[in-house]
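Page 42, continued from yesterday. The earlier attempt failed because a stray header line got pasted into the input along with the sequence. Redoing it now with the clean sequence only.
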Amino acid sequence: MLFDLSGQVALVTGATKGIGLGIVNRLAEHGAYVVVSSRSQAECDARAAEINARFGDDRALGQVADLADRDSLDRLVAATVAWRGRLDTLVLNAAKTDVLGSAAVTDPDDFSAMLTINVVNNSHLAHAALAHLAARRGALIFISSVAGTGSSANVAAYGVSKRAGLQLMDNLALEWAPLSVRVNAVAPGFTVSESTRPLWSSPDIRHGLESSIPLGRLGEPDDIAACVVFLAGPGGTYVTGQIIVVDGGLTLRGAGQRQEGQRDYKALVASGEEAPAGKASGRQSRLPGLGS
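This time it went through. Structure tokens are written below.
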């Protein structure tokens, strides 16, 4: 019963692939009605149809939204509440991840766009949902990254945005506690998904990464989803303002340290070896190995 989400309504952004898809499937498996959101309505509908086929009709709704478009975020919340009349859990998984390299090579406009999308606009979505979450004594869950817990010369702007997101989580946890809304973050390490294929599909790179992780393997979407189910359910009702790091022990050795086998992401993309898909404002894919 501590993990029973029956009757709850959960909204997950960036939910059509990778970690987000893992989260939305496990929430549904534990009884929740789920809203699957991403930048593509067709992909949202396809993933929602799969969940409905598996768990029963009308368990999932696909609703397009773009983290770079605040009006679409307002519509996302409105569509969720119109569908089921409530919102119990909001999972902020979508993120802009395409600004690579050190601070020295980061274009100021790219830096500004990353902060706006990952921090300011996620804050906007959270506040758009606040009244509904408060009505249900619900939960707000940030999907962060180990990149936000320490220094990195590979993804400097992304790391800053994730660190800022953790500060936002702290602030909202304190501000929203009197409303009985719990606010927490899950920080993945290197996690297997389609967008991290450049890492795990290369035996040499994968071996180097796994050798840097004390538990000796890359994470799976279910590793992250399990924490989300806990935080959303009855078992998590006395937890707020916390960062749960799910990284196989990687940060025991220092999140910003260069370990054996790690690659410079900007150089990886520039070399054309196997670049992450796409580069567009508000892109909701994940940078290899850094969670959301």
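Notes: Residues 79 and 197 are 33 Å apart (CA to CA).
Reminder to self: strip header lines before submitting.
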